[in-house]
Amino acid sequence: MDLTERAYNLAESLLAEPLPRRWAHSLGVAKCARSLGPILDGDAALMEAAAVLHDVGYSPQIASTGFHPLDGARFLRDQEGMDERVVRLVAHHSCALLEAEERGLRQELETEFELEQPGLVDALVFCDMTTTPDGGCTSSRARVAEIVGRYGPDTIVGRFIQRAAPEIHAAVQRVEERLSAAGQPAGQPM
């Protein structure tokens, strides 16, 4: 079984039944990742695997700290022996260090998981932050606003996402610029 097939099977087993909306989002993020193949320099399968797995830390089967990037990465590393680059991308997806700081977990995240290549980190931010909770396409600005609205501006997630917004938008812009330079349409596939 190849990396992406294994990733889809694992994510589905952890998310589809207990969290169908989170599963739909993960499938949308993976679809977006597939569209980035032309700018990923041979890392397309790695990115798609990380994309479909990025939110497994929400699964009730594995959630322990309540911080899904850390819970997901630990599970993928310790229980599944997943590719270490996939694990690093899951651990640090969508500005996770800023949320870890809000939760008092930044040192744990930084100590346990190195950052992946910046271009891949940007690509996963792009995929996650241009995908709605139901797996559709959106802009990063609408996505940030949706998250603030869903959680509230004064919650941990609300504070984190507002702090992270400038970097999220910058990462999305960098990916769109790479797509444009490669002659690919910017934005998510419909």
Question: What's the topology here?
Answer:
Blueprint: H1 3-15, H2 20-35, H3 44-53, H4 68-78, H5 84-91, H6 96-103, H7 106-112, H8 118-129, H9 140-151, H10 156-181
Helix pairs in contact: 1-3, 2-3, 2-8, 3-5, 4-5, 6-7, 6-10, 8-10, 9-10
The first-to-last residue Cα distance is: 29 Å
Helix amount: 55-70%
Number of strands: 0
Shape designation: globular
How would you explain this protein's 3D organization?
The chain has 190 residues and is mainly α. It has ten helices and no strands. It is globular and about 45 Å long.
Features:
globular, 190 residues, mainly alpha
At a glance:
By secondary structure, this protein is mainly α. The protein contains ten helices and no strands.
